[in-house]
Amino acid sequence: MRYLGIDGGGSKTSFLLVDEYYNEICHIESGPSNWLSVGADAAKQAITQGISQLTERPNIVCAGFAGAARHESAAFYKEVLESLIPGAQIIIESDAFIASIGAIGIDPGILLISGTGSIVIGRDKARNMFRIGGWGPYFGDEGSGFWIGREAVREALRSLDLQAPTEFSNRIAGRLGLKSISEVVSAWASGKIGVPEIAGLFPEVVSIYPQEPSRHILTQAVSHLRSMVEIASKRVGLDGCRKSLSGSVAAHPVMRELIGLEFEQPRHSPEWGAVIWARQHFTEPV
């Protein structure tokens, strides 16, 4: 028996193939597969690229994708995987769900995820799962890579309004491959840059910290993330519940220090969480 766990997000997609004893057979990465931010064609291409590199064919696939909590998204991903691996049993979950299984298991606790997007996944003392945030880049995802990148672009554009372009605005423009930050509006409208590119500004912003305006942007970001964790902690209903975090933004040392809360390291990666869930889903009662 071969189990495949997939973690598909806004910046990359990870594929983990194991045998029935959890021995790793291969571990592969491809591009972003969040079809809501990169489009259906790019998402399908990233999934196809990863599947094509597998050294053996999986029997059971558990895939967690950004946006898969929506019915139409889950249907899209299932159709893609069924066409690529006909006959395999397919489970589609959200990327946040498999990350929580990998990080904290099925016990009461909280997982803060902040990468391209942001969300908190929790299990209360009755082991019921709930979510805080995660409403996408346009209406939510506060404190995420995209949120931080968008605020950085706003700050850079304000410097043009003040007729005082700054080193910050030049660095943000350069990171986006633009000659001037004024080009960002047309680049977004034409599709030259999108959610992944804006979220990709986070390393530039954090490298400038503690200088302004990075300090202000990151302080606001962690305020949002901390608030989400505090709301989730109340809903868990247990004092001192397990807290963990994942994602390139939340796990960054500067962000962890600014958040100022105690977090344990995730037990496993999201793709391992997908494999674990696949095994339990088909072989063990949960």
Topology, please?
Blueprint (H helix, E strand, L loop, with lengths): L1 E7 L4 E7 L4 E7 L4 H4 L1 H13 L7 E6 L5 H14 L4 E6 H10 L4 E6 L3 E6 L5 E5 L11 H17 L5 H9 L8 H7 L4 H5 L2 H7 L5 H23 L5 E5 L6 H7 L10 H14 L3
Parallel strand pairs: 1-4, 4-5, 6-9
Antiparallel strand pairs: 1-2, 2-3, 6-7, 7-8
Helix pairs in contact: 2-3, 4-12, 5-6, 5-10
Describe this structure in words.
With about 290 residues, the protein is an alpha/beta fold. It has 2 domains: about 1-100 and about 270-285, Nucleotidyltransferase, domain 5, CATH 3.30.420.40; about 105-265, ATPase, nucleotide binding domain (Nucleotidyltransferase, domain 5, 2-Layer Sandwich), CATH 3.30.420.40. About 45% of the residues lie in helices and about 20% in strands. It has helices at about 35-40, 40-50, 70-85, 95-105, 145-160, 165-175, 185-190, 195-200, 200-210, 215-235, 255-260, 270-285, and strands at about 1-10, 15-20, 25-30, 60-65, 90-95, 110-115, 120-125, 130-135, 240-245. It has a 5-stranded mixed sheet with strand order 3-2-1-4-5, with helices on both faces. A 4-stranded mixed sheet has the order 8-7-6-9, sandwiched between helices. Helix 4 (about 95-105) packs across helix 12. The longest helix is centred in the last third of the chain and has 23 residues, at about 215-235. The mean pLDDT is about 90.
